């Protein structure tokens, strides 16, 4: 009897310790929403309002510790925040300082969670909020996004209000912050076993896939060269059902979307597909809608030269060959995607013909020679001896777009302000000599190719007639999503058991 009582008490004590341990280390779920930047200051609402409403409904039935940093100054948007998201742990307007503070906050929480008894600062961290191994941290970004620029690993997003929305590609005259600032957070998450998800729903967000690692899942609502659309984020949030992984949610949302944007995921399957088809599909997801939403003009203007035309043909043939290979796999598996792939091949051919016809018309004005390179040598004297010659290499395109009169006048004024004989003065005179020769070449080019006069304005006037490209690009986008889903499922099916970790699959809601 005593023995049975002893065992019973021992079992109770053991189970108590187990349950206490589980409770003590129950995984935390933290969700951060930031964005709304780049909306015109004068407007009461933003294009992100639909997402905010959906996000609020999601939180009604899903428990997360939430922090929200969203653009202020828009009365309708602020009402939505107050009505649908009344009790977040923290709420701030989306400014550069608040963006930096939020990132630092979660970096510190991970650092605090990693401290152990005996570590420096351990006692100070005892009562501080911590993120520990196994915890989930999801960061949702829904803001205007700029295209990636040189020396960036990711891209920049808008903070605060915008005063000019005429350039949605570069976000000129809009305050931005680079998402490169999330890199340290991803490293800390990896080092400390935090399950981190970064959902970038901004334009050009495919560039953010560089933040991914074995503990960080990155999902982007668009490719790095494309606009995103305001309906992807609410659809994604609506599909965030309990028990589903982020990979599941992404695949369901992507297949059901109709936007012309090429959403991306950082899994091995996603990266393989991106590398396989994104660059060759990209030109056929461009279109002309209006002067603002217009990537087609820039692409075509960059492809008027003989060399660019040749490369364009090579890339198109490569795309069709890849589709033929995929079609063969589909036929072998008796897959229902066969008709869709065949239709996609026809759509690519149709849209290429439309673009080629436009390019042919513009090349007839002489634009095929815009990549022709000229070299100008400048000379000048210093103390009776010639200084080393300098040279300028410029394409016809660069020459035609340069105001040499303004450059020569500016440098001539600088020469006048320099008294006596100096080497700097001689260098300026050498620059003037180069610009005078380049100006003469510009006059010669226009004399022999009068169709190149004001070619950029002619180009813009002509492309404004191509509004039908929205319809064909949309058809391609819809079929592309079916192709992507077929490729992804096929890669999943043939994935080796020894494959690398998939944090998007491991991040279960």
Features:
single chain, 509 residues, alpha/beta, 3 domains, seven-stranded mixed beta sheet, two-stranded antiparallel sheet, 18 helices, 50% helix, disordered N terminus
The helicity comes to 40-55%
> Averaged pLDDT, please?
88
Q: Largest sheet, if any?
A: 7 strands, mixed
Enumerate the spans where pLDDT stays under 50 for 5 or more consecutive residues. 1-24
Integer count of domains: 3
Beta-strand percent range:
5-15%
Instruction: Supply the helix-strand structural class.
Output: alpha/beta
Supply the number of helical segments. Answer: 18
Radius of gyration: 29 Å
Query: How would you describe the shape?
Result: globular
Note the gap between the termini.
Answer: 48 Å
Strand order of the largest sheet: 3-2-1-4-7-8-9
Count of β-strands: 13
């Amino acid at each position: 009897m005593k023995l049975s009582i002893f065992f019973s008490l021992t079992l109770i004590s053991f189970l108590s310790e187990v349950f206490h341990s589980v409770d003590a280390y129950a995984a935390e779920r933290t969700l951060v929403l930031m964005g709304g930047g780049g909306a015109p200051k004068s407007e009461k609402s933003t294009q992100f309002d639909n997402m905010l409403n959906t996000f609020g409904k999601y939180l009604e039935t899903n428990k997360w510790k939430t922090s929200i940093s969203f653009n202020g100054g828009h009365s309708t948007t602020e009402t939505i925040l107050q009505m649908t998201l009344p009790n977040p742990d923290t709420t701030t307007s989306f400014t550069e300082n608040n963006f930096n503070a939020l990132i630092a906050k979660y970096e510190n929480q991970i650092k605090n969670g990693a401290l152990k008894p005996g570590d420096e600062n351990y006692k100070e961290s005892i009562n501080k909020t911590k993120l520990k191994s196994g915890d989930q941290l999801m960061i949702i970004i829904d803001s205007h996004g700029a295209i990636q620029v040189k020396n960036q690993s990711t891209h920049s997003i808008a903070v605060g209000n915008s005063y000019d929305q005429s350039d949605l590609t570069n976000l000129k005259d809009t305050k931005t912050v680079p998402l490169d600032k999330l890199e340290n957070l991803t490293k800390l998450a990896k080092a400390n076993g935090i399950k981190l998800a970064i959902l970038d729903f901004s334009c050009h967000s495919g560039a953010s896939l560089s933040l991914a690692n074995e503990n960080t899942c990155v999902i982007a609502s668009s490719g790095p060269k494309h606009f995103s659309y305001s309906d992807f984020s609410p659809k994604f949030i609506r599909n965030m059902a309990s028990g589903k992984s982020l990979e599941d949610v992404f695949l369901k949302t992507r297949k059901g979307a109709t936007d012309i944007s090429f959403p991306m995921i950082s899994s091995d399957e996603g990266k393989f597909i991106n590398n396989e088809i994104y660059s060759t599909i990209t030109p056929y997801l461009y279109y002309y809608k209006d002067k603002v939403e217009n990537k087609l003009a820039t692409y075509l203007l960059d492809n008027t030269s003989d060399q660019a035309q040749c490369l364009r043909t090579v890339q198109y043939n490569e795309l069709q060959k890849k589709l033929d290979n995929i079609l063969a796999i589909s036929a072998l598996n008796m897959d229902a995607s066969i008709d869709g792939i065949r239709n996609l091949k026809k759509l690519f051919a149709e849209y290429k013909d439309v673009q080629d016809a436009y390019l042919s018309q513009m090349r007839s004005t002489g634009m095929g020679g815009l990549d022709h390179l000229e070299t100008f040598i400048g000379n000048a004297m210093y103390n009776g001896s010639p200084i080393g010659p300098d040279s300028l290499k410029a394409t016809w395109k660069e020459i035609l777009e340069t105001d040499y009169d303004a450059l020569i006048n500016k440098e001539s004024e600088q020469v006048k302000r320099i008294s006596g004989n100096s080497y700097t003065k001689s260098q300026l005179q050498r620059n003037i000599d180069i610009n005078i020769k380049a100006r003469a070449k510009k006059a010669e080019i226009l004399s022999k190719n009068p169709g190149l006069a004001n070619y950029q304005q002619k180009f813009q006037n002509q492309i404004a007639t191509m509004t039908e490209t929205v319809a064909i690009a949309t058809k391609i986008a819809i079929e592309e999503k079916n192709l992507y889903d077929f490729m992804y499922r096929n890669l999943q099916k043939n994935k080796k058991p020894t494959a690398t970790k998939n944090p998007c699959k491991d991040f279960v809601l």
